[in-house]
Structure formats: structure tokens, C-alpha cells
Design brief:
The protein has 2 domains: about 90 residues, OB fold (Dihydrolipoamide Acetyltransferase, E2P) (Beta Barrel); about 230 residues, no CATH class. Strand 1 and strand 2 form a beta hairpin. The two termini are about 30 Å apart. The protein contains 10 helices and 6 strands. The N terminus is likely disordered. The longest helix has about 45 residues. Strands 1, 2, 3, 4, 5 and 6 form a 6-stranded antiparallel beta sheet that branches. It has about 375 residues and is of the alpha+beta class. Keywords: Membrane, Transmembrane, Transmembrane helix. This is YibE/F family protein. Pfam families: YibE_F. It comes from Clostridium lapidicellarium.
Length: about 375
């Protein structure tokens, strides 16, 4: 009974700060334009679509649809006010959304010196409600099927997200070495997650050693080949946008690429390491007389069985992130050599194989770590 109360208190103390963090409201930012008007982003609701029409775009010779929207502002000092907006739907743009009555959206409004709205436009669609429903469904599913283990997994997931958002990213932005930061963060996430899920025991210790070693090996391989291939780390539009921002010249983009490889590797490596350690521990618990040789053999067998699926998982994950880019090169009839030598593609290749190599070496390291601990 005491253990149950202790666990419950631990969970409550852990969940409260996470809930408080997730429920902190994000204030909409405001900026002042060159004509001294103040711009704000607020939520609005479409009252009705007054009319729709098609307009021909002379630049790209495509049909653009226009909607005249009557929108009510739902927040801020202009709450309750209604504005008329002409929304242009462009097929080639990411915001090619056709609104209907009742839809919620974010408005970008500008005020004159007297504080009245002088212009409004569609900034973005409100998606957070649907995403929250998806999150709730995920949480219910993992707890319903995983039980207490699933609940612990949710706790570790929340802690992992907090560490990345509150520690990893801020330290990177402050100019700290991404290689050291990402390595320390990955090890910290590994230790915290595995101890919460499985407690502090021989199995957990072996899994921590195997995971940490595998991630470090993946990082070493990535570091070597990032320098060999002269990959810049700014091959994506997101990286280029960051480079062009106020942070230009203050960030180590190669180091950030290194950190992204480590974090991307961590989940798969942790999974396979724990699977091996759990199997070896179950054999020892159920049959105390079993020889160390048979335990090692079983651990290697599990590792070999899962190595194919896990490496495939990593490869597919990285390939999926480059599908649109590769399709673009194929449409332009670029050669294979041209595609593979592109900065972004080369980065993904390094991510894929460095992560897979780290995953492969995790198997014997975890087996060896458990064997050493089992001998004591």
C-alpha cells in the first residue's frame, strides 16, 4: 500500500508541472509596420461566405478562386467586431483553403493610430482543436492497451518533450555547442525514460549503457561524414529561413544537423536496447539456472530478429521526409548523381546510415552490458 501511495505521489508531482506548462496561454504577437499601424493576430469565425468568384492569375496562367468573407473577431479588444475579407485561394500556395460558414481562422489585423481596424486578412486556419482531439485519442489508446506501462510511457514522452523544448532548443539558440548539448540531452532522456518505465535494475542499466553507446556511435559516424561530404546543414528551406533571420551567423548549422541525427536515432536505439535487455532479464528471472551463454545467445537472437525491421523503420522515416524534394528532381529529369549530391539528400543519407550503424552496434553492446551485470 505504501508503494502505491509513493508511486501516486511521484506521478502527481510529475504531472502537475507538465500540465501547467502545456496550459500556459500563448499571447499573440504584435508588430508595428512602416506606416505606424499596429498589426496583431487574433482568432475569428466565419459568419458567412457572401460570394465566391474565379480570377485568372496572369503570372502562372491558373485560375484563382476568391471568397468574400464576413468574419467576427473572437478575442482581443476588437472582440465582437465584424470585418469583410477578400480571401484568394491559390492552388500553388499552402494556404489554398476554401472556407465555409462556421470555420475558425486566425486574422492578421492592422490598426490605425486611433486603434480602429483599417485592414484584415486571413493569416492561418485554426487547427489546434482537431490536433488536441488527436492527442487525447492517442493518450487514451496508449493507456487502454498499455495499462500502467502505457501511462508511464506518456510521462516519459511528456518529459522528453519538455527537455527538448525547455533545454535543448534554448541552449542551441543561446549559442552553446550543439554537439555537446545534443549528446547530454540524449543521455539524460535515456536515463530518465528507462528508469521511469522499468525502474532502476539490471535490465534498465544494461539498456541505458546500450542506448547511450549506440547513440554516441551514430553521432561519431555522422560527425565524420558531415565533414567528409562538406554538408552545410542548411539544405532545407527551414534551415535557410533560420539562417536569414536575426540569428544569422550565430548558429552552428552542422552541429544542429548532428543534434537532429542523435535525437532521431534515440527512439529506435532505445527500443531495441530495451527489448534485448528485457528478454535476457526474463530468461534469468524465469530460469535462474540458465547459463550465461544461453542468455547471451537469446539476446543476440532477439537483436538480429529486430535489426531488419528497426533499420527499415529508420530508413523509411528519413525517406518520407525527402519525398517531395526527390519527386521535384525527378520531374525536372535530374540524374541520380545530381540528386544524391544535393545538400539535403546527402544529409538524409548520412542520417539514415549513421542511425542504422548506431542501431546495429547497440545490439552487441547491450548484450555484453547485461552479461557483465549478470555475472555480478
Amino acid at each position: 500500500m505504501f508503494k502505491i501511495r509513493k508511486c501516486f505521489l511521484f506521478v502527481v508531482l510529475l504531472v502537475i508541472p507538465i500540465v501547467l506548462f502545456c496550459t500556459i496561454p500563448v499571447k499573440a504577437g504584435g508588430s508595428e509596420s512602416e506606416n505606424n499601424s499596429i498589426e496583431n493576430t487574433v482568432k475569428g469565425k466565419v459568419l458567412n461566405v457572401r460570394s465566391s468568384s474565379n480570377a485568372n492569375s496572369e503570372e502562372k496562367n491558373v485560375m484563382e478562386k476568391q471568397q468574400k468573407l464576413k468574419v467576427e473577431v473572437l478575442e482581443g479588444k476588437h472582440r465582437g467586431e465584424k470585418v469583410d475579407i477578400i480571401h484568394t485561394i491559390q492552388p500553388s500556395k499552402p494556404d489554398n483553403i476554401e472556407f465555409k460558414t462556421g470555420d475558425e481562422l486566425f486574422l492578421s489585423i492592422s490598426e490605425d493610430n486611433s486603434g480602429k481596424i483599417n485592414e484584415a486578412s486571413v493569416y492561418q486556419v485554426v487547427r489546434q482543436n482537431h490536433l488536441f482531439h488527436l492527442l487525447v485519442f492517442f493518450m487514451i489508446s496508449i493507456v487502454a492497451i498499455g495499462g500502467i506501462k502505457g501511462f508511464k510511457s506518456l510521462i516519459t514522452l511528456a518529459i522528453t518533450c519538455l527537455i527538448i523544448v525547455k533545454v535543448f532548443l534554448p541552449l542551441i539558440l543561446q549559442g552553446y555547442n550543439p554537439i555537446l548539448v545534443s549528446t547530454a540531452v540524449c543521455i539524460a532522456i535515456t536515463v530518465i525514460s528507462l528508469i521511469i518505465v522499468s525502474g532502476f535494475n539490471r535490465k534498465t542499466t544494461a539498456s541505458i549503457l546500450g542506448t547511450s553507446s549506440g547513440v554516441i556511435i551514430a553521432g561519431a559516424i555522422a560527425y565524420i561524414y558531415i565533414n567528409f561530404t562538406s554538408v552545410s546543414g542548411v539544405g532545407t528551406e527551414d534551415a535557410q529561413l533560420l539562417m536569414d533571420s536575426l540569428l544569422k551567423g550565430t548558429l552552428n548549422f552542422k552541429g544542429i544537423l548532428f543534434g537532429s541525427i542523435l535525437i532521431g536515432t534515440l527512439g529506435a536505439v532505445m527500443d531495441i536496447s530495451m527489448s534485448i535487455a528485457s528478454t535476457m532479464n526474463e530468461l534469468r528471472e524465469n530460469n535462474p539456472r540458465i547459463s550465461s551463454r544461453n542468455i547471451v545467445k537469446a539476446g543476440m537472437s532477439v537483436g538480429r530478429d529486430t535489426i531488419g525491421t528497426m533499420t527499415t523503420t529508420l530508413i523509411l522515416a528519413y525517406i518520407s521526409s525527402a519525398v517531395f524534394l526527390v519527386l521535384g528532381y525527378m520531374v525536372s529529369k535530374s540524374s541520380f548523381a545530381d540528386i544524391i549530391n544535393q545538400d539535403m539528400i546527402a544529409s538524409d543519407v548520412i542520417k539514415t546510415f549513421a542511425s542504422s550503424i548506431g542501431l546495429i552496434f547497440t545490439i552487441p553492446i547491450t548484450v555484453f552490458a547485461y552479461w557483465v551485470l549478470d555475472k555480478r
